Each structure stands twice: as C-alpha cells, then as structure tokens.
Amino acid sequence: MSARCANQWEDEEDYQARLEEYKVKKAIYDEAVEVAGHTYVPTDPVWTADGTGVNFTSATCQLCANGNLDIFAAENSLTSTEWGVTVSNAQDYPATPSAVEGSCDTGATVTYTASGELPNGTFTVSTKVEKEPGAHAYALESDRDLVWTAITDEDGVVTGYTATATLVCSVCKDKRENVEGEVVLDEENSYPATEEEDGKNVYRYSGRPEQKVHRPAQG
To answer: What pLDDT sits at residue 81?
Structure first.
C-alpha cells in the first residue's frame, strides 16, 4: 500500500499506472498551452457603470482550475500547476456589445465582452447591463470612430487633447456623430519626462477605457 495514494484501497501498481496515464495527458496539455496559451477569466472584474470597460488585478485559467489533469497536484510536486496570474499594473480594457435582448423602446439587456492578452495567454470576460425603456446603448464601433485633436501652446508643445466620437446604439443602430466628450488626464498612469527617458501622458475620453497616449520628450 502506498502512502501517496488518494484512495486507501489503491495499491502501488494501480497508483503508478494512474500516474503514467496522467503524465501522458499532462504532456499533451502542456504542449497545447505552449502553443495556444492559457485561457484566463478575471476573478475580480470591476466594470464601468455602462459596461463599456473593465479593470481587474487577477485572473484564473479555468481549464487548469476545473480540469481533471491535475488530480495528482496535492500528491506529487512534479505535477503541480500555476492556475492564475496577477496583473501588477492593472489597466482598463474596453468592452463591446456581444449580445442584445429586447429593444430601446421597451428596455434592453446588453451583454458587453472584453478580451485581451495576459502573460502566457488571453482573457475574456462579460457582463450584462439592463437599459431602461427609452435609453440607448451607445458605443464606439471601432477606434477610428474616436478622433483626437491635440491642443498646443505657442511653441507647438502639446498641452492636452480634445476628442469627438461617432457613437452607434448597439440595440437599434441609432447613430450620433461628432459627440464631444470631456477629456481628462489619467494622472495615475501618467508621469513626466526626465533626463533619462520620455514622459507619458494618458488622456481619456468621457471616462471610457479608450485612451490617447502622448509622450513628452526627455528633459
């Protein structure tokens, strides 16, 4: 009888057979991960009120966490797997409508989905937003629909930006053009230029996750 056995009735021969089968499956899995990467799901998503953006600091690969490949993880350190990733520099990811139920007249439920790259893989996360009757679910159809215009001083130095957008309702396709929004400097993710490196100014339009990055030259 082996002390490593998960089942007290499992003898050493059965354990070794199960371990060998696991190693074969794990090798196939590891090769797939190396080619395609992990498929992460954020564990602490914080969404904007309108569902058009999300921020998170950690994510878990659901295939690893929920699969049966790591049945020996607690018994054999050689088969342990890192299931999650921590995002040290959290950022806002834009989300776009991926499904719609209802109408603008009676009220709609819009599903917003965000996706992007993380270390050794990608992530996808969705949320549903209930729209009141008569309310539209306006969104950018592409980055080209957001036009940035630089503000410069008399010396030609960029001091800020203005922006206008073309927004389309994801439910009824009503379109609004040249929508002016408030542009603010994202101070948390901006920093001044130094003698060693360029600075970074990040501007955001009306609280949306889309951004304009300007890099002031070295001082």
So the answer is: 42
